[in-house]
Design brief:
The structure is a single chain. The chain has six helices and eleven strands. It has a five-stranded mixed β-sheet. α1 packs across α6 (196-215) and α3 packs across α6. It is 24% helix and 24% strand. The protein has 273 residues and is α+β, with helices and mostly antiparallel strands. The longest helix is centred in the C-terminal third of the chain and has 20 residues, at 196-215. The mean pLDDT is 96. The protein has two domains: 4-131, MutM-like, N-terminal (N-terminal domain of MutM-like DNA repair proteins, Alpha-Beta Barrel); 144-267, Helicase, Ruva Protein, domain 3, CATH 1.10.8.50. The structure holds zinc ion.
């Protein structure tokens, strides 16, 4: 599933290729993935709108449009946003025609095998569901004090709390395992048992690991590709995620797999406490 670094990779590329562009047509719609508007509204009201800003909050891309419109996009499990794709492609759910700043026609496709992706079209503000999200895990604003406050008194495992988008937005299964490995914390530790020093360490590793994912243009363990169809590189630098049975690169112990919050989790019991 695309997490914050993968979504940020797509956001940066969209911001560059769509700067100064405007929507000219809505050529295909998948009603099952559409939220906060009707298909008719999208087809009638989107064409003609300019793209003012391509932003991001957690795993959501938020496109600010002319006329106070907003497109909020979530890639779900297997979503891909492709600009001018060369191939015909299977599982295309939305197709948009655009006019670039220089008048050149462009094509933006939203492909999604599993159809868990979402496209919200709203006016006056982004999708209402964004109100439930905590601050962006990479860009904030938040600090160790905020994190300590959110973990205080919690009996849920720290891994489950990192995945809860109401505390911090953007962390998913892969980066949670990596962040906890680098923090030398067991994913099973109840959130409320972390010491102040451990919370500070965790608060440093969260943006550090996500920033590394952004620098490496995302993690392509499954379907992730960028807007040009290219894979990221973070999967070659994983220390914990899906490494069960392998040797820990820090202490030489053996990584094990447990299930936390319904998600496969791997960690080193010898050096993550
Ligand atoms: Zn270890």
């Amino acid at each position: 599933m695309p997490e914050l670094p993968e979504v940020e990779t797509v956001r940066r590329q969209l911001a560059e290729s769509l700067a100064g562009a405007r929507y000219s047509s809505v050529d295909q719609v998948e009603p099952a993935m559409l939220r906060d508007c009707t298909e008719q509204q999208l087809r009638v009201e989107l064409p003609g709108r300019s793209i003012e800003l391509v932003g991001r909050r957690g795993k959501y891309i938020v496109v600010t449009l002319g006329g106070e419109g907003f497109l909020t996009l979530h890639l779900g499990m297997t979503g891909q946003l492709l600009v001018d794709p060369k191939d015909a492609g299977a599982h295309t759910r939305f197709i948009f025609g655009l006019e670039a700043a220089d008048g050149r026609p462009m094509r933006l496709e939203f492909r999604d095998t599993r159809k868990f992706g979402r496209l919200h079209f709203t006016s006056g503000g982004p999708a209402p569901r964004l109100a439930a999200l905590g601050p962006d895990a990479w860009k904030g604003p938040w600090d160790a004090g905020y994190l300590a406050d959110r973990l205080s008194g919690r009996t849920a495992p720290i891994k489950a709390l990192l995945l809860d988008q109401r505390h911090l937005a953007g962390i998913g299964n892969i980066y949670a395992d990596e962040i906890l490995w680098w923090s030398e914390l067991s994913p099973l530790r109840p959130g409320g048992t972390l010491s102040t020093a451990e919370v500070v360490r965790l608060a440093e590793e969260i943006p550090a690991r996500l920033g590394e994912g952004v620098r490496l243009l995302g993690c392509s363990v499954s379907d992730f590709v960028d807007t040009a169809g290219k894979e990221g590189d973070f999967q070659n630098w994983l220390r914990a995620y899906a490494k069960q049975g392998q040797e820990c690169s820090r202490c030489g112990g053996t990584l094990v797999r447990v299930i936390i919050a319904g998600r496969g989790t791997s960690y080193c019991p010898d050096c993550q406490h």
